[in-house]
Amino acid sequence: MAARDKTNAEPTGSEQASADAVEQNPGPASTSKGRPTPTRKEREAARKRPLVPDDRRQARKEARAKMNAARERARIGMAAGEERYLPQRDKGPQRKFVRDYVDARTSLGEFLIPVMFLVIIATFIPSLEAQTISILVLWGFFLVAIIDSVALSWLVKRKLTKKFGSAEKGVGFYAGMRALQLRVLRLPKPQVKRGEFPVV
Fold first, then answer.
1. Model confidence pTM above 0.85
2. What count of other Cβ atoms lies within 10 Å of the Cβ of residue 92?
3. Nearest CA among 154, 159, 148, 180 for reference residue 94
4. At what angle do helices 93-104 and 128-164 cross, to 10 degrees?
5. Cα–Cα distance, 174 to 102 (Å, whole number)
6. Distance of CA 40 to CAs 25, 34, 51, 116, 165, Å?
């Protein structure tokens, strides 16, 4: 009788605590994600992107926009004289020195195009004498501009030799051709003002 009473007795304090813990943590069944773990093949398939997009028209449009942006960036970089955007003929410290020296100088050759326009206008004057004089003026100015460019070429080579020890091949022609262009049409664009000659 005593044994029956012990069996039906109320649980002790430790037994009650264990029962409460089991209720609060019901076991692995409650921690389930609710879905099966994806296989390796399924994970790899989810990471894969199609090589050819579904909307090819949109893809072409985006590619064209990126290409235009890259070209515009290259154009701006070249105009600003950024080394990585320059063509091979404009790269290097000697070429930069030549550009800065020519742009700091007032050359006769940069006025050649305006003089040519004036001569073209003068040819419409109904006077053979005026037309002849305008042609002679043009040829005279052209000759003086060529002489100025040759002198500039010699001067630039001399300064490059003093600064760098030697002058690269073709820098004289490079200087002369730049001097024959209008300042506003030169590429890369002038980075110095008139009179701001580079230090030798």
1. no
2. 15
3. 159
4. 140
5. 10
6. 31, 19, 21, 76, 65
Q: Are 110 and 145 in contact (CB under 8 A)?
A: no
**Spatial separation of the C-alpha atoms in residues 182 and 115, rounded to whole Å:** 12
Q: Which one-letter DSSP state was computed for residue 89?
A: G
For 163, residues 6+ apart whose C-beta sits below 8 A from its C-beta are 97, 200
- Interatomic CA distance for residues 107 and 89, integer angstroms: 21
Question: Residue type for 113, please?
Answer: I
Estimate the crossing angle of helix 93-104 against helix 171-179, to 10 degrees.
30
35-44 pLDDT, tens per residue? 778 788 777 7
Break the chain down into helix, strand, coil percent, rounded to 5: 70, 0, 30
Closest CA to 74 of 66, 86, 56: 86
